[in-house]
Specification:
Distance between the termini: 40 Å
Number of helices: 4
Strand order of the largest sheet: 1-2
Helix content: 55-70%
Largest sheet: 2 strands, antiparallel
Length: 161
């Protein structure tokens, strides 16, 4: 039973999940700070209220209906989604698209800024083995040349690791 628990804890996905939770908590603090520090005061100024949650209160029998609270929660959700998308998702997607475009154009990546991945090395090994066996090199899924493929006519490929 102890060995099974140790194997469970030492799995990579458990560690990755723990890291994701910690990073997610820190990320939540960052996004909430942007929304609470910048956008909420702007919205409160538009509605001439100290807090949107305290506005639009309607008396209802012995209690109150707080439409401002519901509206504030909806706006908070939309603001958080917008901050996540425009500040983090969109720039990262643009970066990935630019990298893919450079790879497809055959522009070599700087190995110091863009380290070689396992997929890059395996693709290069596959292509070199196909060339050595006399078969045509298979086309990569992205139709991009291997980033560190040996030049045509060279007998000994050089790897950078």
């Amino acid at each position: 039973m102890i060995n099974g628990f140790k194997e469970f804890i030492m799995r990579g996905n458990v560690i990755e999940l723990a890291v994701a939770v910690v990073i997610g908590a820190a990320f939540t603090g960052l996004v909430n700070a942007i929304v609470a520090g910048i956008f909420n005061p702007l919205i409160a100024a538009i509605f001439n209220a100290d807090s949107l949650a305290k506005s639009m209160v309607v008396p209802f029998f012995s209690g109150e209906l707080s439409f401002g609270l519901v509206l504030a929660a909806l706006i908070q959700f939309l603001l958080v989604a917008a901050v996540v998308y425009f500040a983090f998702v969109m720039p990262l997607n643009t970066l990935k698209e630019n990298q893919a475009r450079r790879r497809q154009a055959g522009v070599p990546l700087d190995p110091m800024k863009h380290p070689v991945t396992d997929l890059d090395l395996l693709t290069e090994i596959r292509d070199l083995l196909a060339v050595q066996s006399g078969a045509a090199a298979p086309v990569a899924a992205t139709d991009a040349p291997a980033p560190f493929a040996a030049p045509a006519g060279s007998e000994s490929p050089k790897h950078t690791l």
